[in-house]
Design goal:
Shape of chain B: globular
CATH class of chain B: Alpha Beta
Radius of gyration of chain A: 12 Å
Largest sheet of chain B: 8 strands, mixed
Order of helices and strands of chain B: HHHEHEHEHEHEEHHEE
Oligomer: heterodimer
CATH superfamily of chain B: NAD(P)-binding Rossmann-like Domain
Strand content of chain A: 25-35%
Helix content of chain B: 25-40%
Number of helices of chain A: 1
Strand order of the largest sheet of chain B: 3-2-1-4-5-6-7-8
Distance between the termini of chain A: 42 Å
Number of strands of chain B: 8
Number of domains of chain A: 1
CATH topology of chain A: Ubiquitin-like (UB roll)
């Protein structure tokens, strides 16, 4: 879907994606089926704390990474 | 030769003592250092070897498991002949043989909230070689309660992560991971990944112990992707709503070495 007034382009896990303008991290997580209670979300090189997922809106050009944390040893 | 290092020690550590960053003073600090290492699996094997080899004076290691055949693709402290032995005992034997100047206290015990303070004792640093979130939560609480920095490491499959938590200066483990992850079986893992992560943990530990406080992975999570062979760091801000530490820290404070 090309970018228009109601959507923006972001990079998610290395791929260019068109997502709704104003989409929160929570919504993007659900959209990309990346549900894991202890997931790492990186936005433009910074760690996003889980409590901020609902209130953090993706901005055009954001680089997002959804990362499964490593708890093995 | 230092008045405090024997001729044998001076030669043993020569190649690191010649580094301006270490020097005889740094080596003396290592000689008097006390490190608590939790877990002697893939991560702990490698960090223990490097810490002992580097001349850490007292290494206090704890693991509750016995050596199994399926450990041996990555847990380099344990050999085929050790199968069935306590990992603590197997580790102590190898570390003693590697460097008799390193006093190793090895304990076969499960780390709990009840015994954690006693086990960690007067260590200056906690190094994580565990394989589960629950023990890391316990180590995190002990780290905060005692004000001891905590070098986190973890691996899963072809990726791994490392960071240094310093009470009063950085977020804590539970700032980052307030929720328990969904239960999964033991992850697959390729030996070099815990090797890389355990080595970086040992590097962070040595730097901390000798006082090289610049570039210690404070408030940065190093993430290693073994598929793309890419290393990156993710900046960690404050989590003021952390139920454990309250995000109450100042990155500019100088509460550690």
């Amino acid at each position: 879907m090309p970018e228009d007034n109601s959507s923006i382009e972001v990079i998610i896990n290395g791929f260019k994606e068109t997502v709704p303008k104003g989409a929160s991290i929570s919504e993007l997580i659900l959209n990309y089926d990346e549900v894991d209670a202890a997931m790492i979300v990186e936005r433009n090189g910074r760690f996003v704390y889980p409590r901020d997922y609902p209130t953090t809106q993706a901005q055009p050009g954001d680089v997002l990474e959804f990362i499964h944390p490593d708890f093995g040893g | 030769m230092s008045a405090h290092l024997s001729t044998e020690e001076a030669l043993r550590y020569h190649r690191q003592v010649t580094l301006a960053e270490i020097g005889e003073q740094g080596q003396e600090k290592l000689k008097h250092a006390r490190v608590f290492l939790a877990g002697l699996g893939g991560l702990g094997s490698v960090s223990a070897l490097y810490l002992a080899a580097a001349g850490v004076g007292h290494l206090h290691v704890v693991d509750r498991d016995r050596v199994e055949l399926e450990n041996l693709n990555r847990q380099l402290l344990h050999f085929t002949g050790d199968i069935g032995k306590r990992k603590a005992e197997s580790a102590a034997n190898k570390l003693d043989a590697l460097n008799p100047h390193c006093r190793v206290t090895a304990v076969h015990e499960t780390i709990t909230m009840e015994n954690g303070d006693r086990l960690v004792g007067d260590a200056q640093l906690i190094v994580d070689g565990t394989d589960n979130v629950e023990t890391r939560r316990i180590l995190n609480r002990i780290s905060l309660r005692k004000g001891i920095p905590f070098v986190l490491g973890g691996v899963d499959g072809m990726t791994g992560m490392v960071t240094l938590f310093v009470p009063g200066r950085t977020p804590c483990f539970e700032c980052l991971f307030p929720d328990r992850p969904s239960a999964k079986g033991p992850p697959g893992v390729l030996g070099p990944l815990p090797g890389i992560i355990g080595s970086i943990q040992a590097l962070v530990a040595i730097k901390f112990l000798v006082g090289l406080t610049h570039g210690l992975l404070e408030s940065r999570l190093l993430y290693v992707d073994g598929i793309r062979l890419n290393f990156k760091t993710i900046k960690l801000g404050k989590n003021a709503q952390c139920p454990v530490c309250g995000g109450n820290f100042n990155p500019e404070s100088s509460s550690h070495a």
